[in-house]
Amino acid sequence: MSPEKGVHSITIDVDQSARAIHGRQQGAKKGYSAKDRNSKLFQVVVWTVRETKTVFKLELLSGEKHSGNDFLNRIQKVMDSLKKLGVEITVVCDSGYENIAVFEYLNSIKVQFLFAIKQIETVKKRGKYAKKKTVKKKKGEIATILKERILKTKNEFLFRQIFVQNKIACDEFGQLTFENFESNEFTNVFVTNLNLSKSNVYELYKKHAQVETIIEELKNEFHLAISHNHKFEFNQAMSQIAAIAYNVKNMFLSDKKIFQMKTEIVKLSTLQRKFIHIPGIIVNNGGKIFLKVEKRIFDRLKQYFSKYQCNLSTV
User: Fold this and answer.
1) Do residues 64 and 29 touch, judged by C-beta distance below 8 A?
2) CB 3.0–4.6 Å: which of 57, 81, 147, 289 could bond 130 by disulfide?
3) CB of 293 closer than 8 Å to CB of 275
């Protein structure tokens, strides 16, 4: 990804998910999960590049560690690498990563950011009396109210706080009305340094859902963080392999020629089972890799991977 190849900006989406674990696994402890509160689990943090739908970084944390812990140090290391690309960067996160120090750091290195924040009482009061209100109608009777405030930190850093309300607002005749509509209950509240309209900021955040889809695919299709080995280090390695396998799948998807070879069309399900589903193969063989494919498929893979300076060999 570089300006020379036509990529001038990237959006980094960060999200987390709990992964319930069965058995005696190192690092699997009861922790932050509304769904599996009484289960042992790992915390999985996934960093993705929105434009390419690929996994940039994957972190496997112990169950009792909140994904937002030490996020400032972690994002500094990521930005040190990404800034070398020479592209414009936007970071989008949910409220689990809310941190004034992170906002100030990203702004100081000229990185755009958009974070959802927790709706504590102070935030709700600010939103209720915020000015610069705009009203937007969406699909029939769904109304969206967008409001904004400019806030200043102790270090004189100014950032925008944007409030979103989505409600069905009708009078007794079924007509849209906004009388007594404003309150301190919001659909979302954001902080950002983006120079976009309030509605565009909201649309940008809604696309953050893509990372949740990627996480679900990693968990369901690539067996993320599941193995029969109790060592935490092994599970970390397995998670990285799951991310690599996911990216390889997307690499195949981005090259349409790989799916149509002469008169044969390779289905995605076949692609995954036969030469992408590496994590499942490792799990089922106790850490040893046995990948059996037909010679014609092996020859095609070898030719394809040679373009990316990867090597395939027979055992």
Assistant:
1) yes
2) 147
3) yes
